[in-house]
Structure formats: structure tokens, C-alpha cells
Amino acid sequence: MSLALTIDTQGEETVLAALDRFVDLPREELLEGLGGLLESQHRRRIEEEHTTPAGRPFAPNQRGTTPLYDTGRNLRDAFAYAVSDPEVRLTNSFIGAALLHFGGVVVPKNAKALAFSVGGEAVFTKRVLIPARPFMGISADNQVEIVEAVEAFVEGLVQ
């Protein structure tokens, strides 16, 4: 799963054309900064905000604890970005990331039932429904932060 940053503008002059006026624009530096920002935004979403990019709270879990973060930091710590001009790609390498993001049904592979515990109680079941808890994406607040970062970067170049 990955994201690509695309800048869409309206009007006579695009943002990229305006940036090209800087002869030696350090685009890689800008993209690296944006990659770090995207990564920190997604980690913050998992650890602190507990909301989808659309701003909805993550679906609750049966334990009544914080979904996607309560039992470990594997999902949060598996974010990484890569820069390949002209894009930044954010990925999550946690083995269960897609299941947590899109939701799905877990069934036993080599047994008659799944076995796990909830609140210290043993549970045996033939399937578990994992609700979708989308965590990859750019929220409205993230967009504002990204624009502010680009503006600060450009301001730093002209000073």
C-alpha cells in the first residue's frame, strides 16, 4: 500500500512551474522533508488521533481499548517513506497492515477453530470479522500541514 503526493493547482501558473524559477531548487530536500512529515502524520494518527483520514474514529474493538495501537507498536513503527523524484511514497510493511486498513475475515488455516483470549478468557471461533480501520491517507489537517511545509521551504529559499 502506498501514497503518491500530487499537487493540483488552478490558474495560469502551476506550483511546480513557479518552483522551477529557482534554478537550483533542492527538490530532493523538499521531497525528503515531505516524506518525513507524511510518516510522522501517520504515526500520530495511529498513536494519538485514532481517526481515519476522513476524520472518523477507528471502529472500536471488543476489548474496549485503543484500536490499532493498544497491544503493540508494530503497525505504527512499520511506516517508511521513499523518495523518487517527483514523488514521495509512504508504505507500511506490517504483515497485517492491509487487513487492518481494509478489514476482512480471518479463518483457521490448519485447525477447526481460531483460539485467542479476550480479557483473560479463552475464545474459540471459526471466524473473526476485522472491521476496516483505514489509516493510510491524507486528512484535511494533513493537507494544511503539507501546504505549510512547502510554503516554509520556499520561504527559506528566498530569504
Automatic annotation (TrEMBL):
One annotated GO molecular function:
aspartic-type endopeptidase activity
Please provide the Gene Ontology terms (biological process) for this protein.
proteolysis
Q: The Peptidase A2 domain covers which part of the protein?
A: 3-75
Q: Which domain of life is it from?
A: Bacteria
Pfam families in the record: Phage_tail_S (PF05069)
Which segments carry the region annotation Disordered? Answer: 42-67
Protein name, UniProt field: Phage gpG-like protein
| InterPro entries reported in the protein's UniProt record | Peptidase_A2_cat (IPR001995), Phage_virion_morphogenesis (IPR006522)
The organism is: Chelatococcus caeni
